[in-house]
Amino acid sequence: MPLVTTKEMFEKSMKEHFAIGAFNVNNMEIIQGIVDAAAKENSPVILQASAGAIKYARVPYLKAMIEAALEEHDVPIALHLDHGPDFETCKMCIDNGFTSVMIDGSKYDFEENVALTKKVVDYAHAHGVVVEAELGKLAGIEDDVNVAEADAMYTDPDQAKEFVERTGCDSLAIAIGTSHGAYKFKGEAKLRFDILAKVKELIPNTPIVLHGASTVIPEYVDMCNSYGGNIPGAKGVPDEMLHEASLSGVSKINVDTDLRLAMTGAIRKVFSEDPSVFDPRKYLTPAREEIEKTVAHKIRDVFGSSNKA
């Protein structure tokens, strides 16, 4: 099966009330773990690469590994640029066969964001590629995205409607209280489902995206810390809230931090239990297994996309 766009995936998700997991990829083991889990759960999946991942892994390698996954498994896979910082990065990904790109103009004022997004949309649509945009600012740090808590702000539903109408973007990432990285909440986790409901009411046919939506799975934080890590007080979005979001009209939920924690925890455990290990296969195999386990749990128990391929 060739790469697909997210268009049909999202149409089905909105009709049947489930979300599709968008998992960040950086190397072969992460790609294998994600796609193996999606195949076992018979779920569509979005593999997304940030500008940082592209710089690290390089586009030809990422594409070749994802093409290998397509040869091995028969589930719908979209290749998506996560947090495209500018038109040039989006264009480069479109020209290199990505089926979906995100232009993140949320750091600009409304009019600048509209203009930049529209420019990307025009180029992408001319090449059969779909576009995700963002309105509102998420706090937190992830790769090249760094927004202070004081600068974070919720998405305005009326602005969201105007933004989609003026840009023609295919999906919209909104800010309802999630944040990037492993430290999402200081107190109790809280998502503004009232904002989500209003946005869905005003733009019912636009797929909605949640960024910064890792659970920051406690068992992996504990695993990292108990084997020499130092990740105190990490806290994410509880599974129950993400499940509610998937039932309430969110079509795409991004996961990155949970994969990093699963991989790092598994590797730390091997090194700690057997310091003589220096064969990468000995520590990358359990890391891949933990990623597969994490993704399968998200697909099955949180997003509800099992058997929706």
Task: Give a verbal description of the structure.
This protein is α/β, with parallel strands linked by helices. Helices cover 49% and strands 16% of the residues. It has twelve helices and ten strands. The protein has helices at 7-16, 28-41, 51-57, 59-72, 87-95, 110-126, 157-167, 193-202, 218-226, 239-247, 257-273, 280-303; strands at residues 20-24, 45-50, 77-84, 100-103, 130-135, 140-142, 145-147, 171-174, 208-210, 250-255. The chain has an eight-stranded parallel barrel, surrounded by ten helices. A two-stranded antiparallel sheet has the order 6-7. Helix 5 (87-95) packs parallel to helix 6, helix 7 (157-167) runs parallel beside helix 8 and helix 9 packs parallel to helix 11. The longest helix is centred in the C-terminal third of the chain and has 24 residues, at 280-303. It is globular. The termini are close together. The mean pLDDT is 93.
Describe this protein with a few key phrases:
alpha/beta, TIM Barrel, eight-stranded parallel β-barrel
Structural class by sheet pairing and helices: alpha/beta
Strand line-up of the largest beta sheet? 1-2-3-4-5-8-9-10
Q: Between the first and last Cα atoms, what is the distance in angstroms?
A: 12 Å
Order of helices and strands: HEHEHHEHEHEEEHEHEHHEHH
Low-pLDDT segments: none
CATH topology: TIM Barrel
CATH superfamily: Aldolase class I
- Give the number of DSSP strands: 10
Number of H/I helices? 12
Helix content: 40-55%
Largest sheet entry: 8 strands, parallel, barrel
**Could you report the average pLDDT, rounded to the nearest whole number?**
93
CATH architecture: Alpha-Beta Barrel
| Main CATH class | Alpha Beta
